[in-house]
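worker-3 :: picked Twin-arginine translocation signal domain-containing protein
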Amino acid sequence: MDVTRRKFLQVGAATAATVAVLNDKAFALKSLQPVVGVDNPLESYPDRDWERVYLDQYRYDSTFTFVCSPNDTHACRVKAFVRNGVIARVEQNYDVYRY
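worker-3 :: tokens ->
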């Protein structure tokens, strides 16, 4: 029997669909319930030290605004955030209405 690509894909799809429908564990995740119902997980979470790490990641000492002009083609006003004397990140300046 000559098996073509189309016939192989049809048989494979039919087999996969049959296994998914007949398998009683295929839809097991729909019947799972949480062990403990918690309204606000941040109130009952025992270890919240991760918040300090997350907030310190974006901490900065000072900022300044400058103009970035690559090859004198255009001028973009950007804001640099300095931490420990080093520029930590550069973002778009969101006060375009002021200049």
